[in-house]
Give the backbone structure.
Amino acid sequence: MHAFLDFEAPLAELEGKIAELRALAQGDATVSIADEVKALEKKAAKSLADLYADLSPWQKAQVARHPDRPHAVDYISGLITDFVALSGDRSFAEDHAIIGGLGRFRGEAVMIIGQERGNDTESRLKHNFGMARPEGYRKAVRLMDMAEKFGLPVLSFVDTAGAYPGLDAEERGQAEAIARSTDRCLGLGVPLIATIIGEGGSGGAIAIATANTVLMLEHAIYSVISPEGAASILWRDAARAKDAAAALKITAQDLKKLGVIDDIIAEPLGGAHRGAADAISNAGEAIARALAAYRGVSADVLRTQRREKFLGIGRGL
């Protein structure tokens, strides 16, 4: 059973009662609970639908960060065949926060770049919770260079709270590495499709998301700073993250209206963590449509389209 979020407390209570009834029936075969379980399941389904019908921005942030939400490795394993990981920035080290390599998407050769958070204590430490150091972004640039050399579309999967803010990262040029990765995205002569699958945080996200098409999962978030960080700056109170989340316009629905993203990918009822296979399949369909739109488009047109897309954000508001 997956973990319940704070706002899902009524649902957790119902599912707990269902589990208790089933345990009681297993202990005593003479007890008939079918009707009671059916009624509670119906009530739980309605509660889930009601909860997710109108999530607040802060609630969406919680869903986007759910520990059971599918990560980049899950999208790669679900959508990419013949994947071959490529490591290192050819300058300093391998950064496990950004994974990348060659593979095939529905038979077409592509380059993959993704931010991986990890799914347990050991893997989260290995991947630094998805927060890349400069060598991670320099690896991304290396992979984009390779993709352009061989004429391969680039698919990126964005999921990070932000670039790593540690002293060692700053000493090795974190800001410069992010800027160069963003610039490389803009200058790519091949299609770049970015999919925000969880949390798209600050420059750490934009470094691999300055794409021809930016897709976003229904309950993902995308922002210049985390709600907690914004609350600390604006009000000197991280507890006001809920207010900051609403003000920042971090949801897919708000960002689509503002023209920051291009399309929203539907999630299963209750979030991607309740139906990972369906969420990944939906993402695959959206990526396929986006790629098809750029088939046969020249490098100059791709660069111009990408440049105009980002220059146009915010105009006329």
The chain has a mean pLDDT of 91.
